[in-house]
Amino acid sequence: IGCGVGNNLLFAAFRLGMKVTGIDYSSKAIEMAKEVFLNYSIPHEDLLPMDASSMTFEDDTFDSVIDRAALQHNRFETSKTFVNEVHRVLKKGGGYYFTATSQDHLLFNQGESIGEGSYFSDHNEGVRHFFSNHQILELLEGKFQIVKWHKMEDYNVLENVRIAVIHHVGCIKI
Q: Among residues 34, 15, 129, which one has the least CA distance to residue 76?
């Protein structure tokens, strides 16, 4: 989900030989990903422009879903729908891995507030939600069992400033 120009998918398909499906809200990103796949002679018909909060896939389609930061580019209420859709399209026991910005992130509270923990900023990638620990648990409750969850912190060591705090969550569909 949120495959962008397909760099992670390319690794999985080209290096690991996996069959991959990629979606992104941006049709331009999907077109760019298809060009990359063509350059490596990898089938690209499963790279699709699609909104993750209303996916057109059948129930129980995928063994795993990976989201590197698409979830955070929604308001929290939309994030709930997004995660419900992931749950729907995953097979029972399937893995879901995602990253999302934490409320400890440097950009938290920057931009126009558009709901609790959600902000809009033209120069900070539009809508971004900053998740509390409680919100992560709320998203997954009754749907997923958390296998591993940690927050990764990035620092500017020259100025001794924490610049990014990202939730990394791996879970299994129950």
A: 129
